[in-house]
Write a structure and sequence with these properties.
4-stranded mixed beta sheet, alpha+beta, 23% strand, 4 helices, Aminopeptidase
């Protein structure tokens, strides 16, 4: 995702993902421009937006499942966005259900 914010680097966020040998989508990482998440520039919901975009890729590629290995500082993000009862180090979700959950989480924050 790219946007023109000011004279700084105009990259908003990046994602590294790959298709597994069986046809699912694996998220290696999502990252946002530190200026955007630190409050230097006001921007909210960027992580959820890039996650939703990645889920759209999974949908269009007809990947039945999306999975991600979380880290200590990302587990809560995925728990909230995927509507999980608790955080875990490995999240495997059905693509279509994940889309609904992320969209619901995004709507709840409006």
């Amino acid at each position: 995702m790219r946007g023109r914010f000011d004279d700084r680097d105009d990259t908003a966020c990046i994602a590294l993902l790959r298709r597994t040998w069986i046809g699912n989508l694996s998220i290696d990482y999502l990252a946002a421009n530190p200026d955007l998440v630190s409050g230097i520039i006001t921007c909210r919901g960027l992580g959820s937006a890039i996650l939703r975009a990645v889920l759209e890729v999974a949908h269009r590629m007809e990947c039945p499942l999306v999975w991600v290995e979380t880290a200590a500082d990302s587990s809560e993000f995925y728990r909230k966005n995927f509507g999980l009862a608790e955080g875990t180090d490995l999240v495997i979700v059905e693509t279509e259900e994940a889309i609904r959950e992320v969209e619901s989480a995004m709507q709840a924050r409006l």
